[in-house]
Amino acid sequence: MSKKRLITIYLVPIIIVLAALACSSDNEATQVPVDDAPFEGMSASAANCDYEGEIKSIEALDELTVKFTLCFPDPAFVQKVTSPAIGILPTGYLEETEGADEIITKPVGTGPYKFERWDPGNEIVFKRHDDYWGDKAKEETLVFRWNSEASQRLNELRAGSIDGMDNVSPADFGTVESESDLALYVRPSINVAYVGMSAAFKPFDDPKVRRAVAFAIDRQRLVDNFYPPGSIIATQFLPPSLFGYTPNLEFFRYDRVQAEKLLDNAGVLRGDDGIRFTTTMSYRDVVRSYLPQPGIVAQDIQAQLKEVGIDVKLQVMESGAYLDAVFAGDQLPMHLLGGFVDYPDGSNLLSFLFSGTSLPVFGAKFKEISDAVDETNRRADPDDRLRFFREANIAIRDLAPVVPFAHGGSAAAYKASIEGAHVSPMAVFDQFAVMEDPDDDNIIWMQNAEPVGLYCALNTDGESLRACSQVHEGLLAFSVGGTEVVPALAHAFTVNEDSTEWTFELRPGVRFHDGSLLDANDVVLSYLVQWDVEHPFHPGPGRVPTFSAFFGRLLNAPAP
Questions:
Q1: Strand, helix or coil at 260?
Q2: What's 177-240 look like in SS3?
Q3: Sorting pLDDT into bands at 50, 70 and 90, what band is 28?
Q4: Is the dihedral of CA 375, 379, 383, 385 positive or negative?
Q5: How far is CA 151 from the centre of its chain?
Q6: What Cα–Cα distance (Å) separates residue 351 from each residue in 254, 530, 533?
Q7: Residue 195 CA to its chain's centroid (Å)
Q8: What pLDDT does 294 receive?
Q9: Where are the beta strands (DSSP E) in 269-308?
Q10: How would residue 15 be classed by pLDDT, with cut points 50, 70 and 90?
Q11: Residues 398, 456: contact at Cβ < 8 Å?
């Protein structure tokens, strides 16, 4: 497929309109010419919106114009297209690799940094993309390293072997602030930590047992003892700062007596040894903003549940295998996890776990929850949305598939000399291209763990998403260190009156890291390989969690 060389580059301010789109159908995606011009535009469509997805069609109207037609309004659509999980890849690279593992380990995007090499277990090196369409990266080289121990990351920062580190230990916030050559950057607590229970395992199929677990966990104790300043107790799944939070929603207070009564009423009685039942709680030993000390928190929850007769065995798992097991829903009786936001709206946290098309993370689908969550994604009116958010939040409380216990504060630390240092409220959108080290020509960043991969359609872990966001770009982006949606690969867009047709104008002259020019077909194909399970480059069933959470059921997906 030939691409015309475009030499005009222009910028147009974007007007952010929060409304959106929805449905699609169960039929085949097609690729047809849009017009008779030399450029052959791709088009992917569903016959109708019966397939329970949001996207009805995606069309390349011309070389620099992409149109999305949705089945229903989506108030967060412009925020979703910022995600590095649906960043745009070059058509030629997708065709060359056929969606194989090479795109996971050798990414090609349009971002300010391009992939140089990955030394597994040690570091990933990125180099400045000198043909970048926007402001060039301040430093020639960006290096990602990792260490699971917060104290070791801080020692490396003090020694000057790195320039910045993620997730300062709760005990070291004051220490970093007191050292003049270091700087602390605190994130807002827009995340959630929770204990999840699978109804695929007895006795967690009984909501009385799940509610008993909620009564048995002392959330205040966990936050006071194991979380840094800025953390707050979770009184519901959504943090107070997100749209969708329900004020004055009474949650399960810590009450061991009530927990014991519920377990007795469920017929889960103490044996001669005082144990009611034995189960397993799994977790990964990876620090997160929502879970700064996973092992210690797990042990404390274990001790608290033992007091009401629940004998919990702890199981530590490798991160990738753990997430696969969690999303399967029927492999882990209990799990300790949490989530951060990809965009600042309550639908983001809820859709991943509770939408009608999400995976059965908790061993069953809870219709009372999923119906309400789905409506929050389809209503343009804020008051309508808040009504359905309230329904969802109440149903999550009453059915208790999860026990949210904390919205964690967190912080990164940098050498005080680093210019442009910042943290993103969404945790994974830190933009290292704007940072400058006056002492050398690189930025060296140390995070908690090694990325799982660099094709973030497949990943939900923060380490991968942060790395991907240096290489891959969406149609739009978030402002540096903020939540404002700004132009990226698209410099402008228009939307129809009922917010179901969105047309994006791409920047001319944008070059991928392989030298090819961005056009509308790159956008269509990048979305299509995730959307259509029958596309030959599709990664495989269940392997595009972000796309599914954002846009509902995939095209041609088998019936649940």
A1: helix
A2: HHCCCEEEEEECCCEEEEEEECCCCCCCCCHHHHHHHHHHCCHHHHHHHHCCCCCEECCCCCCC
A3: very low
A4: positive
A5: 26
A6: 27, 17, 20
A7: 18
A8: 95
A9: 277-283
A10: very low
A11: no
For residues 3 and 101, membership in a common domain is answered with yes
Judge residue 369's burial from the number of C-beta atoms within 10 Å of its C-beta, 0-12 exposed, 13-18 middle, 19 or more buried.
buried
Domain count across the chain? 3
Q: 437 lies in which domain range?
A: 111-182+432-470
Round to whole Å and give the CA distance between 270 and 485.
55
Average pLDDT, the chain: 91
Please tell me the distance from the alpha carbon of residue 209 to that of residue 198, in angstroms, as a whole number. 11
Q: How many helices (H) and strands (E) does the chain have?
A: 16, 20
Identify the domain boundary among 370, 390, 407. Answer: 407
Position 371 scores a pLDDT of 95
pLDDT tens digits for 501-559? 999 999 999 999 999 999 999 999 999 999 999 999 998 767 898 999 999 999 999 87
Angle between helices 207-216 and 382-399 (to 10 degrees): 90
How far apart, in whole angstroms, are the C-alpha atoms of residue 81 and residue 176?
A: 36
- At 350 the three-state DSSP class reads helix
Query: Do both 343 and 247 map to the same domain?
Result: yes
Which residue bears the tokens 């048995």?
216
Inter-CA distances, 224 with 221, 230, 232, 297, 406, Å = 5, 11, 9, 11, 10
Distance CA 126, CA 115 (A): 5
**Cβ–Cβ < 8 Å for 467, 454:** yes
Q: Are 513 and 505 in contact (CB under 8 A)?
A: no
Same domain, 1 and 41: yes
The DSSP symbol for 515 reads S
In this structure, the answer to whether residues 269 and 314 fall within a common structural domain is yes
Q: What is the pTM of this model?
A: 0.85
Residues 238 and 347: their CA atoms lie apart, in Å, by 9
Strand-pairing partners, residue 127, are 114, 141
DSSP letters for 430-459: --GGG-B-TTSSEEEEEESS--S-S-TTS-
Q: Tokens for 17?
A: 């309109």
Residues 86 and 342: their CA atoms lie apart, in Å, by 12
- The pair of structure tokens assigned to 412 is 């990164």
Q: CA separation (Å) from 241 to 37, 51, 238, 244, 389?
A: 49, 33, 8, 9, 14
Buried b (16+ CB within 10 A) or exposed e, 192-208: bbbbbbbbbbebbebbb
> Does residue 202 sit in the same domain as residue 264?
yes
d(CA 284, CA 192): 16
Are residues 433 and 469 in contact, defined by beta-carbon separation less than 8 angstroms? no
Same domain, 359 and 377: yes
d(CA 12, CA 148): 43
Indicate the residue type of 34.
V
Question: Do 301 and 345 belong together in one domain?
Answer: yes
Residue 42: phi and psi, rounded to 5, are: -85, 150
Burial class (CB in 10 A: 0-12, 13-18, 19+), 69: buried
Euclidean distance between CA atoms 480 and 503, whole angstroms = 25
Q: Any bridge partners for residue 142, and if so which?
A: 126, 443
Q: What is the rounded CA–CA span in Å between residue 11 and residue 499?
A: 24
DSSP 418: -
